[in-house]
C-alpha cells in the first residue's frame, strides 16, 4: 500500500502546526527546514559564549485559543504562565511614572487599571477603531490625542510592527475584538524559553508520531507538472513525490515568491530589533511595557533582560553599541522600579539581534495575497496569511488551515485548485 505523505517546507510555527495537524489523525509528514534548527523566528539562540536567550520577546494572550490548544496537544500548556496577573506595568519614559494597565478593555472600568489620561472621547474613538468597517491608518481614527502617545502608538507598533500613521485599522481591530472576550486579555510568556517551551515539545510530538524533521535542507526548486508538484529539489538530493503526496510551503512570502514567481505575494516588510542584556534578573519572569521610549516592552528573565523595538527602521543602520546604550538609558529607571540592579551609567554586556524582514508591513492598503492552494497538491501557510496580525496565533491557524485544504484532495486527478478562505474573525 502506498503511503500518502505531506511534505512540509519550513519548520517555523506554521510548518510545525501543519505537521501536527497532518499527523493528528495518523497522516504521514516530513518537514524540511533550511536553518540548522527548527523554530523560524520563534527560537532560542545558544551561541558559543554561553549567553542563551530567545531571538525575541514573543508572547501569547489567552485570546490565542488555537495556540493554547496546540500547547495542550504537545504537553506544554503549563510552561506558559501569566507574569503580570495584576495588570501590565507600563513605564512612561517622559514622566518617569509607572502604572499597571489592564490589557482587557473591560478592566478599564476600574480606574486603577485604566490607561493614564483615558477620557470618554478617547473611548469613543477606540470603539470606532474596534468596529471599523473601512480600512484606514490607525492614526486617522485616534487623532492627535494624549492617548495616542501613552497607549495606541506602543500598542499598534507592538501588535502590527507598523507605525500608526500607516498601520491597518482593520488588522488591529481584528486583534482587539478577540481581546474583548471575557478572560481573553491575559498575557502569557514561556517560562524557560521559546525552544524549550514550544518548539522542542512540538518536534518531540511529531517524532513520537513517526514524522521526520530535517534541518539544513533549503528547498532549491519545486518540480512541477500539470498543475501539481512532482518533486522537491533539496541541496543534496531530489525527493520525488508519490501520486497522492502533498506539499505545504510554510515559508515567508519572499521565499514563496522565489519558488513560485508567478504568485502575488507581499513585498514590503518591517524590521524588529531586540537587545538582550546579560545581567542578574528576577527569580520569576516579569514583563513591562514602555511608552515615550525607543523600545515597546521588555521581558525580564533570571539571567538576562530582553528588550524589543518593533517597526525599527529608524535604528536598523545604527551601530549596535549605540542602540544598546540608548535603550539602556531609556529603560534602566523602569527596571530599577521592578527591583533590578540597573544603574543608568553601568550598562551590562549586551547582544543586539536585528531581523530586517521580521513581518510584512501591515499597512492600511490591499496587500497582495496569493491563492492558498496555488497547485492541486500544494498549499501555503505562514503568519502573513489571513487578516490577523503576523503573530504566533496566525502562524498556527495558517498551518492548520493548509493541512485541512489538502486533507481530502485527490492529487492524482486533474482538478483545478480551489481556495477556501482562512477564517480568523471567529476563531477561538
TrEMBL record:
It comes from the Bacteria. This is Protoporphyrinogen oxidase. Residues 13-404 form the Amine oxidase domain. It comes from Microvirga lotononidis. InterPro entries: Amino_oxidase, FAD/NAD-bd_sf, Zeta_carotene_desat/Oxidored. The lineage of its organism: Bacteria, Pseudomonadati, Pseudomonadota, Alphaproteobacteria, Hyphomicrobiales. GO terms for molecular function: oxidoreductase activity. Keywords: Signal. Residues 1-24 form the signal peptide. Pfam families: Amino_oxidase.
Amino acid at each position: 500500500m502506498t503511503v500518502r505523505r505531506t511534505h512540509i517546507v519550513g519548520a517555523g510555527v506554521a510548518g510545525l502546526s501543519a505537521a501536527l495537524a497532518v499527523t493528528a489523525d495518523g497522516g504521514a509528514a516530513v518537514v524540511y527546514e533550511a536553518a540548522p534548527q527548527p523554530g523560524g523566528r520563534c527560537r532560542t539562540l545558544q551561541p558559543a559564549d554561553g549567553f542563551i536567550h530567545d531571538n525575541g520577546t514573543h508572547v501569547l494572550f489567552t485570546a490565542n485559543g488555537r495556540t493554547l490548544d496546540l500547547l495542550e496537544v504537545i504537553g506544554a500548556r503549563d510552561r506558559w504562565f501569566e507574569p503580570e496577573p495584576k495588570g501590565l506595568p507600563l513605564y512612561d519614559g517622559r514622566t518617569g511614572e509607572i502604572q499597571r494597565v489592564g490589557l482587557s478593555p473591560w478592566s478599564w472600568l476600574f480606574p486603577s487599571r485604566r490607561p493614564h489620561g483615558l477620557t470618554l472621547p478617547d473611548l469613543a474613538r477606540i470603539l470606532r477603531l474596534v468596529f471599523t468597517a473601512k480600512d484606514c491608518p490607525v492614526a486617522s481614527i485616534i487623532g492627535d490625542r494624549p492617548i495616542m502617545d501613552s497607549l495606541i502608538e506602543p500598542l499598534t507598533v507592538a501588535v502590527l510592527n507598523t507605525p500608526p500613521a500607516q498601520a491597518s485599522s482593520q488588522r488591529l481591530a481584528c486583534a482587539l475584538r478577540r481581546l474583548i472576550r471575557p478572560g481573553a486579555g491575559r498575557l502569557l510568556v514561556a517560562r524557560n524559553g521559546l525552544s524549550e517551551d514550544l518548539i522542542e515539545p512540538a518536534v518531540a510530538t511529531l517524532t513520537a508520531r513517526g514524522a521526520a524533521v530535517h534541518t539544513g535542507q533549503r528547498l532549491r526548486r519545486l518540480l512541477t507538472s500539470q498543475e501539481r508538484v512532482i518533486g522537491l529539489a533539496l541541496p543534496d538530493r531530489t525527493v520525488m513525490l508519490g501520486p497522492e503526496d502533498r506539499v505545504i510551503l510554510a515559508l515567508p512570502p519572499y521565499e514563496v515568491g522565489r519558488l513560485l514567481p508567478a504568485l502575488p505575494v507581499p513585498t514590503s516588510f518591517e524590521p524588529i530589533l531586540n537587545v538582550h542584556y546579560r545581567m542578574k534578573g528576577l527569580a520569576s519572569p516579569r514583563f513591562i511595557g514602555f511608552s515615550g521610549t525607543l523600545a515597546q516592552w521588555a521581558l525580564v528573565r533570571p539571567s538576562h533582560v530582553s528588550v524589543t523595538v518593533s517597526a525599527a527602521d529608524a535604528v536598523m543602520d545604527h551601530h549596535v553599541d549605540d542602540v544598546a546604550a540608548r535603550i539602556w538609558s531609556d529603560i534602566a529607571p523602569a527596571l530599577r522600579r521592578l527591583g533590578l540592579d540597573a544603574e543608568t551609567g553601568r550598562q551590562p554586556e549586551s547582544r543586539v539581534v536585528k531581523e530586517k524582514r521580521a513581518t510584512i508591513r501591515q499597512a492600511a492598503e490591499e496587500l497582495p495575497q496569493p491563492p492558498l492552494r496555488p497547485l492541486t497538491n500544494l498549499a501555503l501557510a505562514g503568519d502573513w496569511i489571513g487578516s490577523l496580525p503576523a503573530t504566533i496565533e496566525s502562524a498556527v491557524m495558517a498551518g492548520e488551515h493548509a493541512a485541512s485544504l489538502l486533507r481530502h484532495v485527490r492529487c492524482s486527478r486533474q482538478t483545478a485548485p480551489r481556495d477556501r478562505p482562512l477564517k480568523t474573525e471567529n476563531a477561538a
